């Protein structure tokens, strides 16, 4: 299973890091695959707190903030719950460029903007959501400005402002593991506290998932706290999930690849700012292809992968090909392109925006480029719950999603408008908040039978009660070894994906039910591991199904775009027998409601 | 390795709350922050930046072997 | 002869109150930070050790009394003490000062969080110590007026001053052992030793003074 970092010639530092790692392994007990469960608390003594609200917002990033504020302002009793701190969890703390369409300064109309995005996205975007982004971004930016978001590099304080002003109840450090459905509609959610020996249940008329995206706890992209929890919870109760075949192609650096902070230059230190229209076709898997075909450049040697690119591989539409050499794709790229976006001035592969760092991708001491920094994550906004309308509703009545948790395909299957991910989360959060409040106003509070709640609590605590089991960290590492290598999910081909799927099914059927947890932290890891396994299965199945190459999805065995059969997204859902099903949904159409 | 040491902690719990990955906890007896789960640290420096007394030191190496796509 | 004894005394003084803390600072295995932060750390450490040194620049230190003239001692005592006191009074602000120049929580927010963390014994001690030190500073600055106004004897003023500073030092050391970034075992022993000896010397002097008049308990500085 090992896909451990196999550098051609490990440098002294890498060697030290690796041996240090081995030490860590033994001292942290990660090595233990199957072992006795040395529970540190008494599972029988774990209590439950029960809450009730009209609108429950799960997640404390940009989307969650606006969802809660707007739901409250629309008159609904609103509550926020998040596994991390408001503005200091998920991806939001790291994004610094906020896209604003300002009619006063833009020369292009919104129609023209939407068309440009659609051309770059090769039809994979949902123009309704692309337009919405442009229409509302200015208002959201103005509110953020009022709250002080653009005044400092940490978001917690500015995010807390509207929440405390409105007295919106906020519970942090609760991991939500279950959505509860009753009588065919959403009825609430459940999870557990990281800090106390307590489960938490919330009865809610509507739930807005603002749980962000997720990944396979990769190295070099700060997404290790997200594992597509929202999508998986929703999938379990019958929601449709989309966009799993797209790939975020961020790469990192070979020296200390897991060091997100330094790998991103001064990005995490920056104060957020706004940016205007600038549409690219960025950060697919082009560099992965170069490395796959020619091997990776070695430190100090010629930059094989980028100096003399091999023909073929992922295609950038003519209009969006840029003049500088093939991107090296270091994390710095996001500062200028990628999901993110500037602070203005940055250009992928071009000179860094503000002189720090030198060569694209980072100073030479960081080593050569290395793939998989964001493994397990798709293009922001492309993956997540399938919206059934333009107001972020899912196919489950009362269940909404916004931001990275919603498969709105706002940008499509590739990064198009820079800086639009953060703005998109703000815009969609606000829209979902209002829609959910409206829905909640018209219905009675759901009732959840006690037996159901007891059942959920039992499920949550099961890993703590196992006498022995698989360690979640070990299962995660096994999954990483299967899923992260370049030749599995970046440069895709059928036999390899089938092989990986066999592994993942094994983990799903044999390991997932036998994960153990000794404390609340490990309990979190257990659920995250479960979510990663199901996410991996979705990614493999969707990638196998899409027999073409387009945007950030590249099939070595189907290198061409297939406009005859594939003007469609892939929606994933669980059938009555509990099997994973995949269906096509034509581009620019809403899913049929049954 | 990863988050490395905490010196001069006043026990305000800012880092515990600000860590997305639940790496740090407050020791109930000493009232100070302890690095409990370093293997889960994503080296994002949020804890350090939120700490009012700048007590946290973070090193660039991950404490467990990392899996990458190529390189 | 007399001159060189003076020089020796000064050199020893510098070695004990500047050299040793610098040595312990250097040997401590606390990660180094930016130059500014290290300078501020060292400044605060030295301010405190020099403050401890004041016990030895007083009437209680017979060696110094023999070598130097009382006005000389008083002048140096005052000069060092005011400097050190000001740095120590400022050190909560110095801790958050570098945030002006780097990313992270804003200095004022950091400061507020810091001084409102009442769960921490170290912070509470720090707040009490800070207030005490302010009292020490103000009473010293206006001692003449106080003496006149309340008609107390200069000797009584000295008891008050000694008592206040000993209490401050006990609290300060405790605070620093609990919270100090650089207060490891060596540094702690160093500070306790200096404070204990200083207090004993002072106690001895007062004891001698007071055995003629009223009886007062010994300050309990040596215990902490
Ligand atoms: C390094 C970096 C740089 C970026 N730069 C930019 C940029 O410059 N411009 C730009 O537009 N975009 C950028 N992005 C993308 C942008 O950050 C995201 O698209 C956006 O912040 C997503 O916001 P969100 O609210 O949808 O989700 P997130 O911010 O990811 O929030 C998810 C929230 O859900 C909570 N949560 C997750 N699971 C659970 C659970 N099970 N129970 C309870 N709570 C849960 C998390 O704790 C978190 O609070 C960047 C991303 C990164 C990583
Ligand atoms: S660096 Fe980031 S992940 Fe690591 S302990 Fe600090 S906040 Fe947590
Ligand atoms: S933020 Fe700093 S002072 Fe506060 S608990 Fe964490 S390490 Fe201690």
From the structure above, extract its key features:
heterotrimer, A: 594 residues, alpha/beta, FAD/NAD(P)-binding domain, 7-stranded mixed beta sheet, 4-stranded antiparallel beta sheet, 16 helices, 19 strands, globular, C: 224 residues, mainly alpha, 9 helices, disordered C terminus, binds flavin-adenine dinucleotide, binds iron/sulfur cluster
How would you describe this protein?
The complex is a heterotrimer of chains A (594), B (71) and C (224). With 594 residues, chain A is an alpha/beta fold. Chain A has a domain at 47-248 and 376-441: 3-Layer(bba) Sandwich (FAD/NAD(P)-binding domain), CATH 3.50.50.60. Chain A has 16 helices and 19 strands. In chain A, the strands form six sheets. In chain A, strands 2, 3, 5, 6, 7, 8 and 15 form a seven-stranded mixed beta sheet that branches. In chain A, a hairpin with a 2-residue loop joins β6 (174-182) and β7 (185-193). In chain A, α2 runs parallel beside α11 (420-441), α4 packs across α11 and α13 packs parallel to α16. The model of chain A is unreliable at 1-29 and 325-365 (pLDDT under 50). By secondary structure, chain B is an alpha+beta fold. Chain B has one domain (3-58): Alpha-Beta Plaits. Chain B has a two-stranded antiparallel sheet. In chain B, strands 2-3 form a two-stranded antiparallel ribbon. In chain B, a hairpin with a 6-residue loop joins β2 (24-26) and β3. Chain B starts with a strand and ends in a 13-residue tail after the last strand. The model of chain B has no long low-confidence stretch (mean pLDDT 93). Chain C has 224 residues and is an all-alpha fold. Chain C has helices spanning 2-27, 35-53, 62-67, 70-96, 107-115, 121-141, 143-150, 154-179, 185-210. The longest helix of chain C is centred in the middle third of the chain and has 27 residues, at 70-96. The termini of chain C are far apart. Chains in contact: A-B, A-C, B-C. The complex binds flavin-adenine dinucleotide and iron/sulfur cluster (SF4) (2 copies). The site of one iron/sulfur cluster (SF4) has 13 residues of chain B, from α2.
